[in-house]
Design goal:
single chain; 394 residues; alpha/beta; Rossmann fold; Arc Repressor Mutant, subunit A; Trna Endonuclease, Chain: A, domain 1; 3 domains; eight-stranded mixed beta sheet; five-stranded parallel beta sheet
């Protein structure tokens, strides 16, 4: 089993909160992490129809069978349990008594906010981070292979082919999560919508354009993007509204939480296709953004990641926010450092007045360099992105 960075975060939260919740996409390793982190706790999954029936018909009786607490997998499947959990937790405060997992953040977080607010320590568990793969000796040597394979745990701890796993994952996701969350009458239309989202990876999310290309209404497109967010398929990077006396873009940028899934939806089936694909640069940018997101989530932090772009096209790919501090990050897939890599970073530093803070440039090469106030880092250094993030924010 691959060691997960979030393990220590879970244990830390369990010392202070009576309930710990672990949420993330299907197949990201939530159940494995919960059971390995709390091996002495009984385990129940609400995917089991018998367990779910008992939870719905006699929730008080179910919880009374486990006076010392338990792990409840896919807890959002029985939302009425949250109110009963509140009563049990409030009657006798015991740190780390219950562990909840869920693969639909809207369902799980809705139950938490309504009944368990202030009582839950929350961790978002995404697919494997490069740091975790490197520690396990499983990090691919080639960045194209990494982007194409993605980082879902089953692709690293089992004998699985990409052409077997991704179609099954997409099919299962469509058949289970989408039907549970909203009544999508035409699953083929939703799958087409999913592929059109992949074609827009790293771009500003224009819902009107996306809806028109998919033959659906603007409201439907907005609802379907929310579904993809809720089930941890996509991540919307919000613009940072810093006023530098320029008109700022207000639309978010669209990223996938796993580059392998995005590459599969784009029809990329081998390394040669990826090497010459028009979206290779966007996938590389997606890789870097998702690594910073994983690093923060694994530490139990909020995302606090943004981009910055004005109406004249000046853009910084990523801003790392830490309190009042911002660290700009530029992301380039090329293996050769070119002069134009630095233009946006230098202009942003000049406009923001934060020229003394180091900026980061992540690129597709293999050398670590420094250019003025810009630290240039090869893609493999993303495996230490948590350390980079902490040092950059000081």
């Amino acid at each position: 089993m691959l060691k997960r960075t979030a393990h220590e975060t879970l244990l830390r939260l369990a010392k202070g909160f009576p309930v710990v919740a672990l949420t993330g996409p299907r197949q990201s390793g939530k159940t494995t992490l919960a059971r390995s982190s709390f091996p002495d706790k009984p385990y129940l999954t609400l995917e089991d129809p018998d367990v779910r029936l008992l939870a719905e018909s006699d929730p008080r009786g179910l919880l009374s069978r486990y006076p010392d607490g338990l792990i409840l997998d896919e807890a959002q499947r029985s939302p009425q349990l949250f109110s009963y959990l509140q009563g049990v937790v409030d009657s006798r405060l015991v740190a780390g008594k219950y562990v909840l997992t869920g693969s639909q953040q809207f369902g799980l977080l809705s139950g938490i906010s309504q009944s368990l607010a202030g009582r839950v320590g929350l961790v978002h568990l995404l697919p494997l981070a490069m740091e975790e793969l490197e520690l396990a000796g499983s990090l691919p040597d080639d960045v194209d292979q990494l982007m194409r394979q993605g980082m879902y745990p089953p692709l690293y701890d089992r004998e699985l082919r990409l052409e077997d796993w991704f179609p099954a994952y997409i099919s299962t996701y469509l058949e289970r999560d989408v039907r549970q969350m909203v009544k999508v009458r035409d699953l083929n239309a939703f799958q087409r919508f999913l592929r059109m989202c992949a074609a827009r990876v790293g771009q500003l999310l224009n819902l009107s354009s996306l809806a028109a290309d998919c033959g659906i209404t603007h409201n439907t497109a907005a609802a379907w993007v929310s579904i993809l967010e809720a089930s941890y398929i996509v991540f919307l990077l919000r613009p940072h509204f810093v006023n530098f006396n320029k008109r700022l873009v207000k639309m978010p940028k669209l990223y996938f939480l796993d580059t392998g899934l995005c590459a599969w939806l784009l029809g990329i089936r081998d390394g040669e296709q990826l090497a010459f694909h028009a979206q290779r640069g966007a996938l590389f940018e997606n890789l870097a953004v998702s690594e910073f997101l994983k690093a923060r989530f694994n530490r139990g932090q909020q995302a606090d990641l943004y981009f910055w772009r004005d109406s004249k096209g000046l853009e910084v790919d990523l801003l790392l926010e830490d309190g009042v501090n911002l660290t700009p990050v530029e992301i380039k897939s090329g293996q050769t450092v070119a002069d134009d890599f630095f233009s946006s970073l230098k202009k942003w530093c000049a406009l923001s007045g934060k020229a003394t803070r180091p900026a980061l440039l992540i690129y597709g090469g293999d050398r670590e360099l420094v250019n003025g106030n810009v630290v240039i880092l090869p893609w493999r250094r993303l495996a230490q992105v948590a350390a980079l993030d902490r040092s950059a924010s000081r």
